């Protein structure tokens, strides 16, 4: 795409090596290739302007109700981010203070999740929950292999049991590390894994069960304690002990503050590892997650590599080598800045806003609530069977005209008949913004309902993955 036009009279100037600064109204424009590496350099101001003009076309992150990921932080966090952008997390020797900060965060998170010995918590920062899931899954697989080999049993057919509602990362894990994924299908109005349908899928080749604290589909919590209890019964009957990993990508930084009595974490002895996204309700910009193991025994030694740290030896477990350290610094900033009370306030406000949205929606005859924000502050809703002129995809598109990004998608197998819209309430989505959103939602519904004929349809996207 030719962003800048070359003027014939400038070609002569180029020969004289004159540097030009093409800004909007100035002559002397250049042709800028965008699909191959250009031959010539340009001034940073020019490149900046070109890139800025382009990324402006992206959706406005503050109106993005589709994502769980943080889109707003304090100004001080922005400054800290810029000041620490050059830090490499793997250079523990060169940036020992950033390494120390990471260790403190792991310890704080271990304590938050009731690790039996938080001061000796085994864990690490990651690029996000996905890397945390890979590491936790690998640890379960390796531990299962060791146990099987020790018992002279075959290790060629590992499987992982989880609900059909799991996030796409678990499908990736199973594919990349060659583990058979066993999805427990959804049933009726229960849109996540429950204890009663679990045991049919578990056997001696099960490396673990994944329980999700905060399903991406509707924000609901899976009953982790009941899932553990079912596996206790299974162990009593079969002698096979199946560990549980909790995918607390979102819930890991919500439940400790909003539902402190709920036992979903290391208080349950069967839970061997937990991961969460620092960049979701951990309230940090994209690029950080955390994974913590109950104790060192659940992270097999032969998965751990060693890097140099102050001339000594630092054990690491990661898929990446180099990785930004700034997000870890930002996580520490948030822990200091907010403390338990601050996190509680932020998440409570999100839940209040979600509750308000849910109540306003429930009052509408066109809307059927699927989740009301009482687990994660997520409101999921479908259209009433009486609505025939339009569907959830039309509502999503209409909302986009107002700037709001609200995904529409169908539920996983067995409930693919259920098409929903989902609003994720995050820090920064205020009561005032919620009012504006409700105004635009109701206006959209009325506009669609006033059409003289139903909306014409193109083919819909098959699924939505985040
Ligand atoms: C978002 C999410 C993931 C993936 O997390 P990233 O931090 O985006 O890598 C995994 N599981 C669940 C339940 C999620 O919500």
How would the blueprint of this fold be written?
Layout: H1 10-15, H2 44-55, H3 75-84, H4 96-112, E1 122-126, H5 129-150, E2 159-163, H6 168-176, E3 180-184, E4 206-212, H7 224-238, E5 244-247, H8 255-258, E6 271-277, E7 289-293, E8 305-309, E9 312-316, H9 326-362, E10 367-372, E11 378-383, H10 392-401, E12 408-410, E13 419-424, H11 431-449
Parallel strand pairs: 2-3, 2-4, 4-5, 5-6
Antiparallel strand pairs: 1-7, 6-7, 8-9, 10-11, 11-13, 12-13
Helix pairs in contact: 3-9, 4-9, 9-11, 10-11
This protein binds pyridoxal-5'-phosphate.
In short:
The protein has 466 residues and is of the alpha/beta class. The protein is 35% helix and 15% strand.
Number of strands: 13
Number of domains: 3
Order of helices and strands: HHHHEHEHEEHEHEEEEHEEHEEH
Query: What ligands can be seen in this structure?
Result: pyridoxal-5'-phosphate
- Category from helices, strands and their pairing: alpha/beta
The number of helices is 11
Largest sheet: 7 strands, mixed
CATH class term of the largest domain = Alpha Beta
What does the overall shape look like?
A: globular
Strand order of the largest sheet: 1-7-6-5-4-2-3
How much β-strand is present in the residues? 5-15%
CATH topology of the largest domain: Aspartate Aminotransferase, domain 2
Family: Belongs to the group II decarboxylase family.
Modified residues (N6-(pyridoxal phosphate)lysine): 280
Enzyme class: lyase
Protein name: Glutamate decarboxylase
